[in-house]
Amino acid sequence: MPTVAALPFDYAFPMAGVALVVIDMQRDFLEPGGFGAALGNDVALLAPAVAPARALLDGFRARGLPIIHTREAHRPDLSDCPPAKRRRGTPALRIGDPGPMGRILVAGEPGSAIIPELAPLPGETVIDKPGKGAFHATGLSDILARLGVTHLVFAGVTTEVCVQTTMREANDRGFDCLLAEDATESYVPAFKAATLAMIRAQGAIVGWTAPSAAVLAALESA
Ligand code: TIU
């Protein structure tokens, strides 16, 4: 089996059972004028994850391996947005409000799109999710079961919010999960570092972490 030099120890995965999950690499989080900026964040902090995420996409695409893209995006009528989520905090713009990239965090609006560099290709799965975790109120479990997937490699944003939540959901569902360290970013660098540490603590209590190059090296060895 291909084996990634990972922390806290090697991560082996079957080629027939691995998928790449790219979390929420949307204009709403990575560009000015979207949800991330409305919450008061410096969106430029997420940019370093783009090239490593693209390298992982290229590696999985070259081998015909399954790829799942997620978007945090609500229905236009906000029927899948809990009022508590919309009320939370004192953002400049709330979910559903009109902004420079269309309505904030609403499916089909320009801000909801995945950034062009990481745009899904035909045949790749795209999941709109109303929560931070990608398993909550989506068909992701069924999709992965149909594909026979047991091992998930994660990239995307933000590390401690949607990526970590989804990894924890996946871990509880029995998947072996690895987070590509350089293909994820946070608006709060200390939170990224803490998340990587807590994922792999206690003997991979949530999963593994490794540089994207180590994942690609394992794919190449297969
Ligand atoms: N605010 C923040 O860091 N993240 C989110 O709201 N969503 C995702 O992480 N995708």
How would you describe this protein?
The chain has 222 residues and is α/β, with parallel strands linked by helices. It has 8 helices and 10 strands. A 6-stranded parallel beta sheet has the order 7-4-3-8-9-10, with helices on both faces. The chain has a two-stranded antiparallel ribbon with strand order 1-2. Helix 3 (50-62) runs parallel beside helix 8. Tricarbonodiimidic diamide is lined by residues 24, 29, 36, 39, 72, 132, 157-158, 161-162, 187. The site of tricarbonodiimidic diamide (TIU) has 11 residues, from helix 6.
Give the helices and strands, then pairings:
Elements: E1 3-4, E2 11-12, E3 18-23, H1 27-30, H2 35-38, H3 50-62, E4 67-72, H4 83-87, E5 98-99, E6 102-103, E7 125-129, H5 140-147, E8 151-157, H6 159-172, E9 176-185, H7 189-204, E10 208-210, H8 212-221
The structure holds tricarbonodiimidic diamide (TIU).
